[in-house]
Specification:
The complex is a heterodimer of chains A (about 750) and B (about 160).
Chain A: H1 2-16, H2 20-24, E1 39-42, E2 45-47, E3 53-57, H3 66-78, E4 85-89, H4 106-133, E5 141-143, E6 146-149, E7 154-157, H5 162-166, H6 196-200, E8 216-221, E9 230-234, H7 236-239, E10 244-250, E11 264-269, H8 272-281, E12 283-286, H9 296-309, E13 312-317, H10 320-325, E14 328-336, E15 348-354, E16 357-362, H11 367-378, E17 385-389, H12 403-415, E18 419-422, H13 425-430, E19 438-446, E20 452-460, H14 477-480, E21 493-498, H15 515-533, H16 537-545, H17 574-587, E22 598-607, E23 610-621, E24 624-635, H18 642-662, E25 667-668, E26 671-672, E27 692-696, H19 714-726
Parallel strand pairs in A: 3-4, 8-18, 16-17, 20-21, 24-27
Antiparallel strand pairs in A: 1-2, 2-3, 5-6, 6-7, 8-11, 9-12, 10-11, 13-21, 14-19, 15-16, 15-18, 19-20, 22-23, 23-24, 25-26
Helix pairs in contact in A: 3-4, 11-12, 15-19, 16-17, 18-19
Chain B: H1 2-10, E1 16-20, E2 23-27, H2 34-41, E3 60-63, E4 66-69, E5 82-84, H3 86-89, H4 96-103, H5 113-126, H6 132-139, H7 149-160
Parallel strand pairs in B: 1-5
Antiparallel strand pairs in B: 1-2, 3-4, 3-5
Classes of the chains: A alpha+beta (about 750), B alpha+beta (about 160).
């Protein structure tokens, strides 16, 4: 019966296009188990007789507030009092639609679906109350967990209506009446996040906080070079560490690594510290790997050379080659190293395998991928794997790759006991899914006024696709669509190319992904052109962005992915780019004269369906760079929870500052040279003590992403500010590698 | 299993006595870093691992009111000392900083925040009205990868008096 209802709704959605996400990702719209004493007309919401309202959070909480904010959308449409709501964290299950909390898409993909959940239950409650009172349901309102009939001043609590509402047929989606935006209590306003109190009292449950009877802790020795396998090991000293129970080997991954366990030698112990100490005593010899010669310096030279040669054309208009002949040419190459995720909580997972079933507790961004990865690793059907999601101590993309979950499952099966796999910080840094090292070369021909009429750029980096397929040489369409083939500048002759690069480590997506290198190169280069022309960068950018228009990328041969969003709903709109640019400039008092050693820099970038400009005021003293003020303007369409939009912008500024100032790891002989926060640092309080002013542009456009798009414009804005302050142009990150003391 | 039991039986050590969140605790685990004693022996998991080398501050606790990194301190070194964890800080009455952290909506992922709060408690105990430089210097020991620094700052300043 539930299936029938699901099909009805899907057909409806197909015709109306109300929620294409639900169709694409196979969302099951069926009701929960029906029961006489509760109202559960939708997968995501149920009302209990005691007044508790359960709302399912199917996305993972890693700091954006999503575990509260999506349920708040349900609560708003339902008319629930937020204090009556209890959040139920979903296990990994295809019935929820995609749970991959990644790509800054939780809100825009599920906003409509959450409204539908709230409206479905809410309408049944309104109908039940209206029937009691003999009034039309459309004359009733819902708020504070009550149905209210204003004309007769009557009101009744939801919990009094549960039995009558549950007896009603579940309304079809096409018959739902949604609230007027003016009635909104939480959407666009915000509300309390459910985890704050537990967090400040140390009671929030993260991955390593799971404790099971008889559980062992495991720490794993993995090959220091990607693809290396253990030849032999000596565990004598490891076994002598008090508390160490056993040593287990994990078979190396087969074929392409994807999300598989890397393989290695595990020390299992009764306590965490014993497992760490044991692993440190383990002597493992590794076989040769095809990546033994990987060296960052040599690879950097090769990337830069490839970038200067050009490659596969990914967008083209006009005739660059012809146009450049008659124009004054500028050129520059930019470089971004491998970057790390470094979440404060390193990867960790707990598994309890018994009788052909596996129960998992993990801080994972993607419980469904964890489920399928564990099932494949253990050779059991996915439905025999239950993945419970803890809070994530940071994710940034690292925890959407469940290799560490597979490790726990494999070890639990081998040891015959529950096992918690702990990664030390050293493990996290050495065995990350690194952000691609990248080189981008840009050339432009400018007219007599100094504005570009021809633009050519070539990006080269090992693709994330190399994590999923053999012999990948070019970037994916998705990567090309991240700030590269959607260049929004109004330039008649354009050529965008992608050169070949092979991966020698695991490559993965990091907060804002390929936008990092593309935004850095493009928004630095445009600033270089403005400086060369002697024109104020904001004036220059307004002109280069051109008339208000929506880009027709398809016409110029771009296979534009648009972050999975429908282009008709979310086109690239230059008016919105200029609006955030000018808002950030105004907020920063742009154009005011600055003292010696102080400069302003700005960059504007669209990614993840949102538009963001960052203006920075920077002081350079004795070679030391200090950001004195950051002004951020964001147009993310409807800002569902403005405070969490603001907090993500603040966080993005600090994240951007870390990667620009001090980010990156280097490889020698195939191995990562860095190991912990002393040599792979991230921003601390004193590095990021500047005020951050965030302006959210009011908008009723459909919501866009928020978690990632604040990151890309930061690095170019910072380097532009340094250039303004010192005259020195930085074209490779991190900035810490450059000596600015003579600048 | 047998090997493990034998080792435990022959490793007889003098008990260490320490007071954690007001409760006196005795243990033979003299060499164990306090972090792991709290997490694995007392199940006080609010104190967190972040680096194991005293670099990040996620494992911060108070020892006689002063912030220290528990991953670097063997249990034996804490004999007779008063240790306060994030669970113990507001056990009876919520500490003003814990309240300020919520009022200013500081946390994002929340993993580092227990350590941040305890460092701030220690800072304000020593300097009730810290300058910006003093605040930076003390709080520099606690990394927040989510970048909640601006709000941590405001929360501390609100308790110190004179929100900026």
């Amino acid at each position: 019966m539930n299936n029938c209802r699901a099909i009805d709704r899907r057909d409806f959605l197909k015709f109306t296009g109300l929620s294409s996400a639900g169709l694409i990702f196979g969302m099951h719209l069926g009701a929960q188990e029906e029961s006489a004493d509760r109202l559960a007309p939708d997968l995501f919401v149920s009302l209990e007789p005691d007044g508790t309202i359960h709302i399912v959070a199917h996305r993972s909480e890693m700091g954006t507030g999503i575990r509260s904010v999506l349920p708040m959308v349900v609560a708003d449409e339902l008319g629930a009092r937020w204090e009556d709501v209890r959040i139920v964290q979903a296990t990994g299950d295809a019935k929820y639609g995609s749970q991959n909390t990644d790509g800054s898409r939780s809100i825009w993909r599920f906003y409509d679906r959450m409204l539908l959940a709230g409206a479905t239950a809410g309408q049944m409650l309104s109908q039940a109350a209206a029937a009691r009172w003999g009034v039309g349901p459309e004359t009733c309102q819902r708020r504070d967990s009550q149905v209210i009939h204003e004309p007769s001043k009557r009101r009744i609590a939801f919990k009094e209506l549960i039995a009558e509402a549950a007896a009603l047929p579940v309304p079809n989606a096409e018959n739902l009446v949604y609230k007027d935006p003016k009635e909104r209590q939480y959407i666009g306003k915000g509300g309390a996040l459910v985890d704050f109190k537990d967090i400040v009292h140390g009671k929030a449950v993260f991955g390593a906080d799971i404790r099971l009877p008889d559980m062992l802790f495991a720490v794993i020795d993995r090959s220091p070079v990607h693809g290396g396998t253990a030849r032999q090991f000596d565990a004598t000293a490891a076994m002598a560490v008090p508390g160490v129970q056993s040593v287990e080997t994990i078979a190396p991954f087969k074929g392409v690594h994807a999300f598989q366990a890397l393989g290695g030698v595990a020390i299992l112990a009764t306590h965490s510290h014993a497992a760490i100490q044991g692993r440190n005593q383990l002597q493992t010899q590794w076989n040769a790997s095809p990546h033994d010669d990987y060296d960052s310096e040599a690879y950097r030279s090769a990337l830069l050379e490839t970038a200067s040669e050009g490659g596969k054309v990914v967008r083209q208009k006009g005739d660059y080659a012809k146009a450049i002949e008659r124009l004054k040419k500028h050129e520059a190459s930019y470089y971004v190293p491998h970057l790390l995720h470094e979440p404060m909580e390193p990867p960790v997972a707990t598994a309890d395998y018994r009788d052909g079933q596996c129960l998992i507790w993990a801080p994972t961004q993607n419980p469904q991928a964890a489920q399928s990865t564990v099932a494949a690793a253990l050779g059991i059907p996915p439905e025999k794997v239950i993945v419970r999601v803890t809070l994530l101590g940071g994710g940034f993309g690292r925890k959407s790759k469940p290799d560490y979950v597979a490790e726990a499952a494999i070890l639990s099966k081998q040891a015959g006991r529950p096992v918690q796999v702990l990664w030390t910080r050293e493990d996290d840094i050495r065995h990350d899914y690194f952000h691609s090292v990248a080189a981008v070369r840009v050339e432009a021909g400018v007219d007599d006024d100094g504005y570009p009429q021809a633009w050519r750029m070539c990006t080269v980096f090992p693709s994330i696709s190399s994590t999923f397929a053999e012999k990948v040489t070019h970037a994916s369409a998705g990567e090309m669509s991240m700030g590269f083939n959607d260049l929004p500048f109004d330039i008649p002759h354009l050529l965008c190319e992608n050169g070949e690069a092979l991966a020698h480590v695991r490559i993965g997506w990091l907060r804002s992904v390929a936008n990092i290198q593309h935004a850095f190169a493009i928004h630095s280069f445009i600033d270089e052109l403005a400086m060369a022309a002697g024109i104020d960068p904001v004036t220059y950018l307004n002109r280069v962005l051109g008339p208000d228009r929506v880009l027709d990328l398809k016409a110029e041969g771009a296979d534009y992915q648009n972050y999975g969003g429908p282009y008709a709903t979310y086109p690239v709109d230059t008016a919105r780019l200029k609006a955030v640019l000018n808002t950030a400039a105004k907020s920063a008092d742009w154009g005011q004269p600055t003292p010696k050693g102080v400069g302003h820099g700005i960059a504007v970038h669209r990614s993840f369906l949102s538009y963001i400009a960052i203006a920075l005021r920077v002081r350079v003293t004795d070679g030391k760079v200090q950001v004195e003020q950051a002004d951020v303007a964001i147009d993310c369409g409807l800002a569902v929870h403005p405070d969490r939009v603001q907090s993500q912008m603040e966080g993005s500024v600090v994240f951007g500052l870390s990667l620009a100032m001090m980010g990156g790891v280097t490889m020698s002989r195939g191995q990562v040279n860095e190991s912990n926060f002393h040599d792979a640092p991230v921003a601390r309080m004193a590095d990021a003590n500047m005020p951050i002013r965030v302006t959210i542009l009011p908008s009723q456009a459909p919501p866009g992403g928020v978690g990632e798009p604040g990151v890309p414009p930061f690095a170019p804005a910072l380097c532009n500010a340094i250039a303004a302050a010192t005259g020195k142009r930085i074209r490779s990150l991190p900035i810490a590698d450059h000596d600015l003391s003579q600048a | 299993m047998a090997l493990g039991s034998w080792k435990e039986n022959t490793t007889r050590k003098i008990m260490a006595k320490l007071t954690i969140d007001g409760v006196e605790v005795e243990t033979q685990e003299r060499d164990l870093p306090l972090l792991w004693f709290l997490r694995d022996h007392l199940q006080k998991t609010g104190t967190r691992y972040g680096c194991g080398r005293g670099l990040c501050g996620a494992c911060t606790v108070l020892v006689d009111g002063q912030a220290v990194r528990s991953c670097q301190l063997p249990v034996a070194a804490l004999e007779g000392r008063q240790i306060t964890t994030i669970e113990g800080l507001g056990a009876n009455e919520e500490h003003p900083l814990q309240k300020a952290w919520q009022d200013h909506k500081v946390p994002q992922c929340g993993y580092c925040q227990g350590g941040q709060i305890l460092s701030a408690v220690s800072l304000l105990a020593a300097k009730p009205h810290p300058t910006d430089e003093e605040l930076d210097a003390v709080m520099a020991g606690n990394i927040c990868r989510c970048g909640t620094y601006p709000r941590i700052r405001k929360a501390i300043q609100s308790v110190a008096g004179g929100e900026k």
